[in-house]
Amino acid sequence: MKVKICGLNTPDAVDAAVAAGADWLGFIVFPRSPRAVSPSEAGALARRKGAAKSVAVLVDPDDRLLGAVLAEMAPDIIQLHGAESPARCLDARAYAAEGVWKAIGVNGAADIARAANYMGRVDGFVFDAKPPAGADRPGGWGAGYDYGLLRDYDGRAPFLLSGGLDAANVADAIAASGARAVDVASGVESAPGVKDAGKIDAFVTAARAVGEDKR
Question: Which of 44, 47, 70, 185 could form a disulfide with 6 if both were Cys (CB 3.0 to 4.6 A apart)?
Fold first, then answer.
């Protein structure tokens, strides 16, 4: 079971995620997020990643922002969390060392089916909860959904389960969805944008325990 800790914005938070054994570290370069960092801040934090992979989380970035993220951070993965087209996702591959993930908001089976439009254009998906009506950002609200909907996903590209996860529910969410990777932000925080080292460790431990049970 692989784990991404997202919305890291301080050295202590990064160090906690690395110490817990997270596979991916997410840095949100989007000003409206309470977890936002600048490209230069993301770069400084990503240099603490150890063996983990760095993920730049962007929302409808233009070429200028992509270039800045590449120059400052050199991300392993770019996660696109806006309304990016399949062609735009393919363009973004030039700015990441390993590939591009597309985030898709889910509240019904039709949302899972949308992933087919991106096949061959992205290297993975992040299936997250759809934001509430009128929201000013696409993710990080701490809301869940029917994780069992992901059982209908039959694409070639792997996916991460995201949205409303925490140490208490991640095992059930994995069982419902069949996920092999999970992504958490608000579920390991003491307040919006404030990561809690104990919650990070508990989340990684809980997710990994499910992976061990599947062997």
Answer: 185
The conformational region for residue 120 under phi > 0 = left, psi -120 to 50 = alpha, else beta, is left
Question: CB-based burial of residue 188 (10 Å sphere; 0-12 exposed, 13-18 middle, 19+ buried)?
Answer: buried
How far are the Cα atoms of 9, 73, 75, 143, 186 from residue 47, in angstroms, in the given order? Answer: 13, 8, 10, 30, 23
Cα torsion 1, 127, 140, 163: sign? negative
> Which tens digits make up the pLDDT trace of 94-131?
999 999 999 999 989 999 999 999 999 999 999 999 87
User: By three-state DSSP, how is residue 81 classified?
Assistant: coil
Question: Cα–Cα distances in Å, from 15 out to 43, 137, 145, 154?
Answer: 14, 26, 30, 35
Q: Measure the CA–CA gap between 165 and 26, rounded to whole angstroms.
A: 15
Q: Is 54 helix (H, G, I), strand (E, B) or coil?
A: strand
Closest by alpha carbon to 176, among 143, 153, 155, 205? 153
- With vertex at residue 106, the alpha carbon angle to CA 123 and CA 163, rounded to the nearest 5 degrees, is 85
Query: Which pLDDT tens digit goes with each residue over 1-34?
Result: 999 999 999 999 999 999 999 999 999 999 999 9
Residue in this structure with the two tokens 């996920």, named with its chain if needed:
179
Structure tokens, 57? 């989380």
CATH topology (fold) of 2-213: TIM Barrel (3.20.20)
With H, G, I as helix, E, B as strand and everything else as coil, classify residue 28: strand
